[in-house]
Amino acid sequence: MSADIATNRKAGRDFHISDKYEAGIELRGTEVKSIRAGKINISDAFARVEKGQLFLYGCDIQPWETASLWFQHESKRPRRLLLHKREILKLDQATSIKGASLPLLRMYWKDRKVKVEIGVGKGKTHGDQRHDLKNRVELREAQREMARFNQRS
Fold first, then answer.
1. DSSP string of 29-91, one letter each residue
2. Is there a domain that residue 107 lies in?
3. By residue range, what is the domain housing residue 31?
4. Is 99 inside any structural domain?
5. Tens place of pLDDT for every residue, the chain, 153 residues?
6. What does pTM read for this prediction?
7. How many CB atoms within 10 Å of residue 61?
8. Torsion angle of alpha carbons 10, 76, 119, 131, nearest 10°?
């Protein structure tokens, strides 16, 4: 069973997500302890392929309060993501298309290890966002009508 640590709802609003990948993440001990304490923000996090490796940027893991300064980590340092080489090559090809990026969708526990889910996304325009909002409102109203109709029966 996987328990979510953090989810990035902003990514679903700002991007059309076509593919999703699960990756491991290389962390330091104080970072894991801060994650367990809930001191994490992934709303601006994204991945980028550099020199054949995948790195995560913009993920803010706050320093662990009880650790000394010697063992502290930088809160927004780049973190290496662990994927197979062929998956990294696929992601590199996918991001070579104009407007494509790799937003972080969620971070979760799996078998006592921290995993991240990244998606291949293309940015939405404001018109697309309004269209999605309109569709959600219409779907919600239709579900209300169905529930109201089923209550009468």
1. HHHHHHHHTT-EE-TT-EEEEETTEEEEES-EEPPPTTS-GGG---TT--EEEE--HHHHHHH
2. yes
3. 3-124
4. yes
5. 468 898 988 888 788 888 999 999 999 888 888 888 888 999 989 999 999 999 999 998 888 777 666 667 777 899 999 999 999 999 999 988 888 889 999 999 999 899 999 999 887 777 777 888 888 889 999 999 888 888 876
6. 0.76
7. 24
8. 20
- Is residue 145 in some structural domain? no
Query: For position 88, which CATH number holds?
Result: 2.40.280.10
Other C-beta atoms closer than 10 Å to the C-beta of 42 total 23
User: What would the two tokens of residue 54 be?
Assistant: 């995948």
Report d(CA 82, CA 144) in Å as an integer: 44
Number of domains in the chain: 1
